[in-house]
Amino acid sequence: MTYVMPKPEGIADEEWEANLSEPASYSGEAPDRSVERTEPGPEGETLGRFREILLNTQDLEWVDKTLEGLSHKALWRNDETGASISLVRFAKGSGIPSRHSHASNQFMFCLRGSYIYVPTGLTLTEGSFYWNPKGSLHGPTFAQEESVLLEVYDGPHYPTQPDWYSSPDDAR
Fold first, then answer.
1. Residue 171: phi, psi to the nearest 5?
2. pLDDT tens, 105-148?
3. Alpha helices of 19-130 — where are they, by DSSP H?
4. Model's pTM, two decimal places?
5. Cα gap 93→110, rounded to integer Å
6. Measured between alpha carbons, how far is 115 from 142 in angstroms, rounded to an integer?
7. pLDDT (tens digit per residue) in 41-83
8. Would you give the DSSP letter of residue 121?
9. CA 89, chain centre distance (Å)
10. Whether the Cβ atoms of residue 126 and residue 87 lie closer than 8 Å to each other
11. Would you say 113 and 141 are in contact if contact means Cβ atoms under 8 Å apart?
12. Residues in contact with 155: Cβ distance below 8 Å, sequence separation at least 6, in sequence order
């Protein structure tokens, strides 16, 4: 599906035509709804070109992961690099069951709840920002109450699929 945003008044045709992103491979609801033009990539894959993108997260359903109590709303993903942005929700009493590390930097901003890193006692509460550098061991974690976090990875999530996920899609 291709959507063409109408040119705003007062913008020259040349400026509007030049105001497209570089070709890229993104996935998720927003890119699906917002691709203005497609182009073939160097290996024949389809790449999109975009203008501004707006996604109302309230329009998205929470999707359960294979780890009990964890669901997410995928907002953006660069399929070439594995970088992504998602909303993640942990039900009260759920969490990541074991110590682990990531293949890239992990950033989280707590929108609501109380989410604790058990070994250190570090607790994310509303308004907290957390950065877990690439390769740093952390966890297990525990949601003391339902917790919603904005989670950003600047590359792939895990070096290998964690054993708490039975689906490889959950580790992306």
1. -90, 5
2. 999 999 999 999 999 999 999 999 999 999 999 999 999 999 99
3. 29-34
4. 0.85
5. 17
6. 6
7. 999 988 989 888 888 899 899 999 999 999 999 999 998 899 9
8. T
9. 12
10. no
11. no
12. 81, 82, 83, 103, 104, 105, 134
